[in-house]
Amino acid sequence: MVVVTRCFASAQQEVCRVTVCIAARSGSNVIGASDRMLTSGDIQFEPSLISKFTQITTSLGILQAGDAAFHSEIMWGVVAEVQERITAHPQDWWLASDISDLYVKHRTAIKRKRAQAAILSPLGLTIEGFLTNQNQFKDDIADQITRDIINYEVPDVSVLVVGIDPKGPHIYVVDNGEISCNDVIGFAAIGIGARHAESQFMLGKHSWQLPLADTALLTYAAKKRSEIAPGVGKATDMFTAGPGLGSLEVVGQDVVDRLDTAYRRMKRREERCQQDAQKEVNAYVQEREARYRATLEQQTVPRREHDGEGATNSGEAGPAISTQKA
């Protein structure tokens, strides 16, 4: 079954990252989860058999969020270069940082190619030709062309490069060409559901030193919590890597089902605790309101006046007594 909807681009034509991809570190292990929602242009769809996770080597993989078509174009070059080196040097293990750099390299090459076709080809130029002959252009025209090439817009895409390499477990985030390492933070998320997922890790006080079982449940919970964001799919794919090289594998559906059972049980307990807390607070609020009403009633009860003979029990004043001298 494929679910298809449309997402509306902003004025800047940004592509909606309708997905969530998550990775978390547990000691010498890395575990990840994602939905299956894909984006291509203004179309988003959820195929039943296509995973967001791509295995690059037996130890490293990539999770993607953003434009699926643009990501696929980048990955053709990444996978080809990785496989070429593995064939030539099978004992030379790839580093997660090298894969991240390689992804940026091929993204930049595609952006450069597209910018050349859109900006320079109509002028009969290539980028190399423009750089060589830019002194033949007026300064303002050369500056404008240079800015147009640098700022040329390509589809929005982010990836997580995750797994094990000879230096240990890693979580790298590549966001539109910008690379960051989240090894010490211990978790990362991309896509429209990223904020919800990251909040779950922070509320759970996640540390990369937590046991694998705790991290697995927290990662699954983060994925489920992120489904509140529009565009995050309900299906869940998971993988794990570690503690040694060559240990990357997809988590079986039976394990995902067990995690789902534990998560649902946890949710029911949370809901019961929340209901009990609400009852307790409601009782306290009602008690406060009752005391407040009682205090108001005491303040409005009539008091017998002792100053003057005409005072009544109802508090009404009797005839006034003049103190003026005749």
Can you describe what's shown?
The protein has 326 residues and is of the alpha+beta class. It has a domain at 3-104 and 154-251: Aminohydrolase, N-terminal nucleophile (Ntn) domain (Glutamine Phosphoribosylpyrophosphate, subunit 1, domain 1, 4-Layer Sandwich), CATH 3.60.20. 42% of the residues lie in helices and 20% in strands. The chain has 7 helices and 13 strands. The protein has helices spanning 68-88, 96-120, 127-133, 139-150, 194-203, 212-226, 253-300; strands at 3-6, 21-26, 29-34, 38-40, 43-46, 53-55, 60-66, 157-165, 168-175, 178-181, 187-190, 237-241, 249-250. Strands 11-2-3-12-13 form a 5-stranded antiparallel sheet, covered by helices on one side. It has a 5-stranded antiparallel sheet with strand order 6-7-8-9-10. A hairpin with a 2-residue loop joins strand 8 and strand 9. Helix 1 packs across helix 2, helix 2 (96-120) crosses helix 4 and helix 5 (194-203) crosses helix 6. The protein is extended and about 100 Å long. The termini are far apart. Mean pLDDT is 86; it is low at 1-16, 314-318 and 320-326.
